[in-house]
Write a structure and sequence with these properties.
Layout (H helix, E strand, L loop, with lengths): L4 E11 L5 H12 L2 E6 L5 E8 H11 L7 E9 L9 E3 L2
Parallel strand pairs: 2-5
Antiparallel strand pairs: 1-3, 1-4, 2-3
Helix pairs in contact: 1-2
Length: about 90
């Protein structure tokens, strides 16, 4: 049986910096077996690249709306992307 894999570049906006959103994202992704990275953007948003089985990425996309305590998410914008050059783990980057 083949498991479908999905990859998304996701921009999360709202109060998502200064609330440990990146660390929370890494922990959630690792628990789900999702790979990729997450980083803060200069405009105050958080950008994440996630890849993994369709069922896991769907859960991760839903969890982005919640975030850690203190976060207030106003929008989650996933864009399908290629799974090329995605790390084999999940990283917090600059």
């Amino acid at each position: 049986m083949t498991v479908a894999n999905d990859a998304f570049l996701v921009r999360i906006t709202g109060r998502v910096q200064g609330v440990s959103y990146r660390v929370w994202t890494r922990n959630e992704a690792q628990a789900l077996g999702v790979t990729g990275w997450v980083r803060n953007e200069a405009d105050g948003s958080v950008l994440a690249l996630i890849a993994g089985p369709s069922s896991a990425t769907a859960v991760m996309l839903a969890r982005f709306w919640t975030g850690p305590a203190g976060a207030s998410v106003t929008n989650v914008e996933p864009q399908p992307t290629s799974a090329d050059r995605i790390p084999g783990d999940f990283r917090v980057t600059a």
